[in-house]
Amino acid sequence: MAKRTDSETMSKHIRDTLRTDILDGRWEPGARLQLTHLSEHYDTSSTVIREALTRLVGDKLVTLRPNKGFFVPELSLAELTDIVEMRCVNEQLALSLGFERAPLEWESELMAAHHTLERTPRRSDEDPDNHTPEWNHAHQKFHDKLVEACGVPLLTEMTRTLSDLIQLYGRWAGPATRDAKRDLDKEHRDILNAALDRNAELAGQLLRAHYETTLSAVKNGGEVGLACLPHVKLLR
Description:
It is a single chain. The protein is mainly α. Helix 8 (184-196) runs antiparallel to helix 9. The chain folds into two domains: 2-71, Arc Repressor Mutant, subunit A; 77-222, Up-down Bundle (Four Helix Bundle (Hemerythrin (Met), subunit A)). It has helices at 2-23, 35-41, 46-58, 77-101, 104-119, 133-148, 153-172, 184-196, 200-222, and strands spanning 32-33, 63-65, 69-71. Helix content is 66%, strand content 3%. The longest helix has 25 residues, at 77-101. The chain is globular and about 50 Å long. Strands 1-3-2 form a three-stranded antiparallel sheet.
């Protein structure tokens, strides 16, 4: 039983590391993920790598092409519009269910997640064009906490998958996204206050505006960052 637990722990660790590296842009969209290279890089067996990649296929962060192997997904800004709409609809449903079901301690946990988000540096001097991994993590935790009280695992898993895909697009949209005229801190504070008031309609509207502003920034940034990648189809 211990060996099985160790094996499961290793598999999850490799899967989580691969997920983080894909979202951080270690490989370009459309790049092939070679088992031999990855097993050497992560110092593990090709069996563990294959299992991790197969799980990430289910999360839509890896594409499996028959007889060709595993690849980082190719990006299409036209598809991104649909992804954002799906996320808005799913999270609005999750909020309406969650605000009715959430216990009081959920509010404290949400405020703590927001506090961490506000106190985490968004950019660094070393890489000023992209959000820091720490901020991305805190941002995801805040949005996860918003919807988790719905108590529907399939719904929360779907919102997390959509969130990952949007983060992947944002990573490759380039430096133009940092010039978007918005106050992210205020957007998150407004969403927090609506959630604490259990106002599902307002919180849903604010989340939609939050995501659609990001969508516009990624589209605009695509002209700078995504256009240089041969795999990306720009939305016109």
